[in-house]
């Protein structure tokens, strides 16, 4: 896959995230996508990713802004750095109580690309920063 094609794929993924189009996000992924959850484990497969998105949508409403996409030579890997702006909708297990708090924090996703689809999604953000922001409200 060319660098330009990889950039377009990542742009499509981010746009789908921001529009709430989970099916369009999933269409960017390989069936056996590896999903490395921030400060968590690794899940394999598009159906587990679908479940994760549903769980996230129940707890958070988020948008990615200030997105910078970087693609390596050859297009096999990419990264997106951005600001997550969100609202904490419902309390997630082990986290502070939700009451509509808003937050804004830097984050990033690393991607691997195989056969024209995203085969790995690794997300990083500072959970302590997020927790401090929602605990204040």
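^ structure tokens above, recovered residues below v
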């Amino acid at each position: 896959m060319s660098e330009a094609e990889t950039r377009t794929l990542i742009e499509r993924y981010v746009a789908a995230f921001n529009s709430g189009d989970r099916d369009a996000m999933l269409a960017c992924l390989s069936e056996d996508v590896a999903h490395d959850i921030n400060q968590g484990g690794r899940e394999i497969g598009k159906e587990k990713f679908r479940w994760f998105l549903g769980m996230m949508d129940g707890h958070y409403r988020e948008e990615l802004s200030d997105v910078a996409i970087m693609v390596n030579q050859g297009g096999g890997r990419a990264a997106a750095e951005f600001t997550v702006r969100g609202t904490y909708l419902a309390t997630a297990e082990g986290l502070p109580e939700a009451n509509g708090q808003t937050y804004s924090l830097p984050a990033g996703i690393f991607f691997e690309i195989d056969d024209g689809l995203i085969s790995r999604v690794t997300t990083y953000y500072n959970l302590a920063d997020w927790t401090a922001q929602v605990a204040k409200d």
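The radius of gyration is 15 Å.
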